[in-house]
Specification:
Strand 2 and strand 3 form a beta hairpin. By secondary structure, the protein is an alpha+beta fold. The protein starts with 11 loop residues before the first helix and ends in an 8-residue tail after the last helix. It has three domains: 12-107, Double Stranded RNA Binding Domain (2-Layer Sandwich); 112-216, no CATH class; 234-407, hpI Integrase, Chain A. It has 17 helices and eight strands.
Length: 417
C-alpha cells in the first residue's frame, strides 16, 4: 500500500520546513489525486532535487511513471522542472493517454527490450541525446540482438543474466590480457543494462516488478579496469628486440616501432607506407581513439624510412613476412617466443617476464618517457590517450619521478646528530 505523506508536499516551502519527515528514499511520499490515482514526491539526497511519480491502479494492476523533477532548487518551467500543480496536471495527462486497461497487461509483460527503450528515452529527455549515445550503441549491439531482450523483466533470474554475460567474454591462450579487457568491457555493458532495469523497477513499481534481486546480485568483475603494467628497462628491451629480430626481421621491426612510439598494435598493423610523412617526421595512425599523428624521433624516422623504402603508398608499412597485414593474434605467440629466446642462458635475476604481452611495449614507451621528464600532455597525445588516464595508469611511475626530483633538489647538508 502506498504511504501518504505525513507532511505537505504541495509546495517547496512546506517540503523544506518538513525535511525531517521527508527523508530521502526510493518509495515516494504520496498524495491522492483521485480514485486509484496518486502523485508522489520521491525525496533524494541533496543536492539532487526530488522527483514527481504518478501511480495508477487499473483493474488491480499498479503502474508507476516519473513525470518530472520537483521544483526544490529551481523555478518550475512546466516541462522538466514541475511544481506540484504542474505535476498533477502531467499525471492526469499521462493517465488520459493510457489505452484503457491494456496498460496494465503491457506493464506486466514488460520485456528487457521495452525497459531499455524506456530508459534511453528518459535519459535523452533528461540529459540530451549525446548523453545516451554510448549507452544506446552498447545496449543495441550487446543486448537487443540477444534472446535476453525478449525476456520479461519480472521473470529474469540471476542465472539468465550470468549466462548472457558469458557471451560477452573472450579469451586467447596467447594473450591473457584479452580476458581482462573483455571482462572490463562486460562490466560497462552490464552497468548500462542494470541502469535500464533499475529505471524500470522505479518507474513501474513493485506490483509489476516484484524484485530487483536478479540484477542487483549480478556483481561486476573485480580488478579488470587496469591493464597489466609489465614493462622492460632499456637493457631488457634491447635483448627482447634482438630476439624478435632473430625470429623474423619484420617482427623485429614491428616490436621496435611499438616500443619507440607507444602506438597500439592495431594502429601499427594497419599503417600504410603513405601514412609516413618523411618531411614532417610524423606517422598517421587510426585506431580505437580515432585518427592522430605520432611525432617521430630522428631514430624512428630513419628506421621507418628504411622500412618503407620505395614501396607504393598503399603497401602495409610494417607488414608480416608475406607482405600482408599481420593477423590479429599472430604477435601474441611470437612475443612469447621472443621472450623465451631472450631469456635463454640469462641468469634468473636478468630474466624478462615471460607472461608479458605485446602491450608491454606500449607500457615501456610510456614509463621511459615519464621517467625521462617528457611532459605528460605530450606523451598522452602521442599515445592517443588522455592525460588523466595516463596519470591514473602510471601513478606509481609519476610518484617515483616526483620523489627523484625532491631528492635531487635536497640541500647537501651534514645533519647534526
Amino acid at each position: 500500500m502506498a504511504r501518504t505523506a505525513k507532511a505537505p508536499i504541495t509546495n517547496r516551502t512546506q517540503r523544506r520546513k518538513n525535511a525531517a519527515l521527508l527523508v530521502p528514499r526510493i518509495a515516494p511520499y504520496y498524495q491522492t489525486l483521485g480514485r486509484g490515482l496518486l502523485l508522489g514526491y520521491q525525496a533524494r539526497p541533496a543536492p539532487q532535487p526530488g522527483r514527481w511519480v504518478v501511480r495508477k491502479f487499473i483493474n488491480g494492476d499498479r503502474i508507476q511513471h516519473v513525470v518530472g523533477t520537483a521544483d526544490d532548487f529551481q523555478s518550475p518551467d512546466g516541462h522538466e522542472v514541475l511544481s506540484f500543480e504542474q505535476a498533477s496536471k502531467a499525471a492526469h495527462q499521462w493517465v488520459a493517454n493510457l489505452p484503457d486497461d491494456a496498460a496494465g497487461r503491457r506493464a506486466r509483460g514488460l520485456t528487457v527490450a521495452d525497459a531499455i527503450e524506456e530508459y534511453l528515452t528518459h535519459r535523452e529527455q533528461q540529459k540530451g541525446a549525446e548523453s545516451a549515445k554510448r549507452a544506446r550503441q552498447s545496449l543495441t549491439k550487446w543486448v537487443l540482438g540477444d534472446k535476453l531482450a525478449k525476456r520479461a523483466v519480472a521473470e529474469l533470474t540471476l542465472a539468465d543474466l550470468m549466462t548472457w554475460r558469458e557471451t560477452l567474454l573472450a579469451s586467447d591462450p596467447d594473450d591473457p590480457d584479452i580476458k581482462r579487457k573483455s571482462r572490463d568491457t562486460a562490466n560497462r555493458i552490464v552497468h548500462d543494462l542494470k541502469a535500464a532495469l533499475n529505471h524500470a523497477f522505479q518507474s513501474h513499481g513493485e506490483t509489476v516488478l516484484p524484485s530487483d534481486g536478479a540484477w542487483r546480485r549480478l556483481k561486476p568483475f573485480k580488478h579488470v579496469a587496469e591493464p597489466r603494467a609489465a614493462w622492460f628497462d632499456e637493457y631488457q628491451l634491447t635483448r627482447l628486440l634482438d630476439a624478435a629480430a632473430r625470429l623474423s626481421p619484420q617482427f623485429g621491426n614491428l616490436c621496435t616501432v611499438a616500443a619507440l612510439t607507444g602506438a597500439r598494435l592495431g594502429e601499427l598493423r594497419n599503417a600504410k607506407v603513405g601514412d609516413l610523412d618523411r618531411s614532417e617526421g610524423t606517422l598517421s595512425v587510426r585506431g580505437k581513439t580515432g585518427a592522430r599523428q605520432i611525432i617521430l624521433t630522428a631514430k624512428v624516422q630513419a628506421l621507418l624510412s628504411r622500412i618503407a623504402g620505395k614501396r607504393p603508398d598503399e603497401a602495409y608499412l610494417l607488414s608480416a613476412d608475406n607482405g600482408d597485414a599481420w593477423p590479429v593474434s599472430a604477435q601474441h605467440r611470437r612475443i612469447k617466443e621472443a621472450l623465451r629466446l631472450a631469456n635463454d642462458g640469462a641468469r634468473d635475476r636478468e630474466n624478462l617476464p615471460e607472461d608479458a604481452s605485446f602491450y608491454a611495449l606500449r607500457h615501456t614507451y610510456a614509463t621511459i618517457a615519464i621517467e625521462s621528464g617528457v611532459a605528460p600532455g605530450l606523451i598522452a597525445t602521442n599515445m592517443g590517450t588522455s592525460e588523466t588516464m595516463l596519470r591514473k595508469t602510471y601513478a606509481k611511475v609519476f610518484a617515483h619521478g616526483r620523489r627523484h626530483h625532491f631528492e635531487k633538489a635536497e640541500p647537501k647538508l651534514r645533519l647534526v646528530r
